[in-house]
Structure formats: structure tokens, C-alpha cells
From TrEMBL:
Superkingdom, natural source: Bacteria
Hcy-binding domain sequence ranges: 7-309
Ion transport recorded as keyword: no
CC cofactor: Zn(2+)
UniProt protein name: Homocysteine S-methyltransferase family protein
Pfam families (UniProt xref): S-methyl_trans (PF02574)
Cross-referenced InterPro entries: HCY_dom, HCY_dom_sf
Keywords, ordered alphabetically: Metal-binding, Methyltransferase, Transferase, Zinc
Binding locations of Zn(2+): C226, C294, C295
Record PROSITE patterns: HCY (PS50970)
Amino acid sequence: METTTGPLAALHDRGVRGFVTDGGLETDLIFHHGVDLPEFAAFPLLDDPAGRDLLTRYYDGYAAVAAAAGAGLLLESPTWRANTDWAARVGYGPDGTTRANVTAIEFLRALATGYDVPAVLVAGQVGPRGDGYVAGEAQDPEEAREYHAPQVRAFADAGADLVSALTLTTVAEAVGVVLAAREAGVPVSVGFTVETDGRLPDGTPLAEAVAAVDAAAAPEHFVVNCAHPTHVLPALDDGPWVARIAGTRVNASTMSHAELDEAEDLDDGDPAALAADQMTVNVRLPGLRVLGGCCGTDVRHVAAMWGVPAPA
């Protein structure tokens, strides 16, 4: 069974112990900073000096965690909603969307020059065409490749180290993203979300999803995101496939996706408890290289998972 390849593996071979990545960008900005993010889209902040300052402070916190942990830093762009359909809902046409994706990579590249950490990788983040909490309408891999290709090409043209697809809910869309990345010549990771039973929102067991994507178009590695560690754990067995999972970005809350969708207040849980629950997942993932958070998490949670104090 092939494990992690690409830039993560290369830097691990050079002694980088792992990579800190960020937490729940959108929930942090909305609930802790009072930022209005229509359609959960953070990328428009890049068009505003105050927005850039806020994003800079946000990423600076995770760089501080990486420095304290002696780990590398994976900077993932704030572009989860910067694909054609979602960007159109916040007023961005095709050219504006491409510009936003390129700008996001340039912004992170500039930040990276100021961080004193063992290594920095800049990833262009791709989100699902649909909601991210439900499987949505069926796509075939070729349709998904065509849909995601413009965003993936923008990241490749801007010099991203890899493409990071997160919160995907189907095998077909995951395969399409990988095909788009192969076409653009950029490494890619596939991030699936799971329900409380460890299955994808369409009911596919995580093990089957990983195997199916690998058979059709293998990415450099896989990630599980937008689920609490206790939801990820039921998906893991003793099969060799678990070595393909190189990253987790977990939720702070134990609530299901449906419950989170209806919640009016943020459930940010307890950072220490989340770190303890995450440890049960870590020991089951021999290829784990990237550790960060998703909905409800912030720098406190990620610092706790890395066993370092949260930056002031």
C-alpha cells in the first residue's frame, strides 16, 4: 500500500516532524471576530486591507504554534468557497474568482517569508461544489474535473506547493479534483468529511472511499476533516489503507453535521478534551503528518493538539 507522497513526504524525509495547519477559519472569524461572511466565503477579505490584516493575524497564530512545536507549517488558502458556483453567489465572476485564487497564494507566500519555522508549504484550498455537509447531487468524475479545473489551474499557475481539497462528500468529486490536479501538474490531497458513524455523507465507508479514489486516480495523500475525533475513530481499522491518511482537521463539537447546521451558537468544546480525543485517532494513523482543526476550533485547540501553549 502506497503511503504519503509529494511535498509532505519529501520534507518528512528531511527531518520535518510534521505540519501544523490552521483551525476553523470561517467559524473563528464569524463568532470570535464578528466578521460577516456571506455564504461562508472568506476569500473576499483579501480584497480589503482590514481583511488582509485580520487574515495575517489569524495565520500568525498558527505560525507561532508551529514554532513552539518545532514543526512545519501548512498554510492553506482561505478559498474553500472560491469555486465557480459559490463565488458567483458573493458577486465574483470567472475572472474575479481566478484572480482571488491567485491572490490568495501570493498572500500566503508573502506571509511565509516572515515565519521562523522548519518548513512552510502553501496549499490552495478547494472546497466542494455542494454544501459540504450533505452528499448533494451526483457528479461523475469527469464533470467534477471540469468544474474544479479553473480553481486548480489558478493555484498551479500561482505556484502553490499543493492543492488541498477539503470536506468532499463523494468519491466521484474526489477523483475529479485529482484529475484536475494531474492535468495542472500540481500535487493534491483529498479531504473527506464523515458523519458520526465514520461514513461519508452518502454512506460510503471511509476505507472504501480511499480505496476507490486510489484505484481511479491516487492523490499524494488523504485527509479527514470537519468531524470530531470520536466520529473519525469508528472509520479506522487495522487495514494498511489507514497509512494513506496523512492529515486530520477536526471539529471542536461532537454534534452531527445536521445539528451543527441548525445551531445558532458556536460549540467550541474544550481544547484539552479535544486534544485527548484526537490522541486516540493519532495512534491509529501511522502516516499522520498534518494536524489542525475545522469548525469551532481556533488556535487554542490546535495548540492543545500539538501540546504547546496557545499564543497570547
